[in-house]
Amino acid sequence: MNALLQNVDRVLISQEELQKRVRELGAQISADYHDLNPLLLCVLKGGFLFLADLSRALTIRHGVDFMAISSYGNSTVSSGVVRILKDLDTDISGRHVLIVEDIIDTGNTLAYLLENLRVRQPASLRICALLTKPARRQVPLHIDYVGFEIPDEFVIGYGLDFAEDYRNLPFIGVLKREAYASSP
Ligand code: IMP
Ligand code: MG
To answer: What does the pLDDT read at residue 2?
Structure first.
């Protein structure tokens, strides 16, 4: 863990703040989706810890399913290229679908995903994002549930990676610039 921690510039959102906000979101979503048996659609890989905690914060019946999408490769800059690496197992037609995302940056990934999912005719389609960087948005998006708005900095931890590292950090941290400037 120390090798990971030495590349963290600072903690942006602590473990306690994350847990408190996830509990609040869980309560709100439980109230909004009461009796609707929503499907939580986790966008892998970054959303895996958020989904795990959010699911446990819900007091209502719900399903979970996973989609893997690639937009970045091993870079901190959006390539604009979106690929589906793993599709859903569930037929979402007529289902109330809540997309669970780690972070919305330019919005390109989500815009693509929304278009792809709408064709499958879910009963409703909403977005829950742990983090959003509004300053970076290239596509206008309405995000129904937001954990935290953050500044334009590259963050890691609580599921978010840089080149597959740092996902296990229990907080959201800002990565030191030299940590990605020196990466191949
Ligand atoms: P977008 O298409 O630009 O909105 O990018 C969305 C995806 O890029 C997220 O789901 C993340 O996987 C990744 N991403 C964007 N910003 C960050 C960041 O600060 N840290 C880690 N991953 C990020
Ligand atoms: Mg993501």
So the answer is: 81
